[in-house]
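Two proteins follow. First one:
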Amino acid sequence: MSNPSTPTEPEYLPGGPDRTVLHTSDGGDPPKTISPPSKARAWRRRWWSLVLLILVLGTGAFLFFHQEAKPRPAIATGRTRGAGRGPGSIPVVAAKARSGNIGVFITGLGTVTPLNTVTVRSRVDGQLMSVNFREGDLIHEGELLAQIDPRPYQAQVVQFEGQLVRDQAALRNAQIDLARYEILLKQDAIPEQQLTTQKALVVQYEGNIKQDQGLLEGARVNLAYTRITTPITGRIGLRLVDPGNIIHASDANGMLVITQIQPISVIFTVAEDQLPPIRMKLRSGQKLPVDVFDRDMKTKLASGVLSTIDNQIDPTTGTLRLRATFNNRDDVLFPNEFVNARLLLQEKRGVTLIPSASIQRSTRATFVYLIRPDNTVVSRDVTLGTTESGQSEIISGLAPGDAVAMTGVDKLQEGSKVLPHFAEDGQAPSGDGQ
């Protein structure tokens, strides 16, 4: 039997749709009714969850579209205020045709050749006593280079001078005898044969004197040859003989080599087809300028004039040799140096010029992409003239001021929209294409 004072567990019984009845089994108090959570409170909780979800989604959408709306930097370099002229514009580097001068040049391979090269040799045999130069010196004509022992040649001079004096005395004695014989012959004191013999003796002594004079002069020349002087103005090369050595006039190598370097010449070759216009200019008395460049044709070394042309064409190569002279005051041209010579045949003035990089070629024609005022391109056929140093002469097809595309042409076609960037001034044209 249960204890009435001990409460039992509450039991929820259905008490209708809007309440719950709490029923106890102790029989004391009447059943209590407890109301469940209202529907309004549950709805508020669901509403706040929905609002929170909407806020999260809205914030995410705002951040996404705000990031997409930021301006992006231009990918192509060189875009200026002209960007935004319309979608699909192709950036190109452009240049404008201009009026200028261009030269007609003939280029040939050449070698720096001295006008004079002298191998100094001794004219007499003897011991080399002294050398009065240093290797690489620039010397002038007449300066003393070396001294050979002069004593043997001084002795020869003295010997021949003595012979000359002896023969001169014999001649005077013979002449006196001849005058006496002439008087005696008139007196019939001597035979005529004796007078004739005396005349022949006088002539013989006169011949001896001339021979002595010649020998003496030769000895004096040999004595002078013991002083070796420079025959030309030029630069000395390496010394080939040292002092103290016995040198001979028959030595093959010589003592030193002197090369004239001021002025100096360049001998270069041109094709025989280019000879007629060159001869025409020379016959009219014109001086044709010649510039020489280094092996890579990048650095200009010197400027001179064409001095002469060879007298025959080489039949094996079909080329002709030309000589140009240069003052070479700065010693920039070195003998036997390989150079490129460029002969100015004619200078064209006031012609239309464009960069050679803007010229395009196809199987049918030579053309350029002309940029119109609305920044669209059109293919324009052109006729080329002289091309030199990255510039080309336009004979027909363009006028000064026309703009042409230089780079990016591989993406162009007729009517393409471009965004030009002019290489010469670094500015792109405005919206009207100016």
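Second one, unrelated to the first:
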Amino acid sequence: MADLESVLKQSLMRASSHSKNVYGKNPLTAQEVFDLANSKETSAVAATIKPDGQPHLSPTDIVAVDGKLYLGVDKTTARYRNLQKNPRLTLMIMEGRKRQAIIEGKIRFLEMESTIAKRVGETQKKKYGWTTDSLVELIPEKAFTYKSA
């Protein structure tokens, strides 16, 4: 498992010339992505894959704790069912056009009684005013970011 900072650098190194041109000019650091995830000024969407292979896009909550990204995934949602069958997810976190991050990777469901799940739940409650009944960690494999100059 690579940390987000190395994934950000590797993704830019392997990117197409177009992606390097768009995302290479003023990228976010990993810490800035974590700050973006915890900002109340952001919105986020998550894409999963339905059993029939079609994409499923939905708004999501996102928080960062101890240098990792976590999403809430209620058990009654299509996102939860999709991730049970295919644990891959693409996340976009954005503060309008000011700051944006697109992160692709695998997920890992948290044990809800674990210490980390409790800490993530507290962070979720602080940011959103509520918690979800299931949490996943996003393990980044590819990421592109942007911030306006």
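SUMMARY FIELD: Strands lie at 43-49, 55-59, 63-65, 68-72, 88-95, 99-109, 135-147. Residues 92 and 102 are 4 Å apart (CA to CA).
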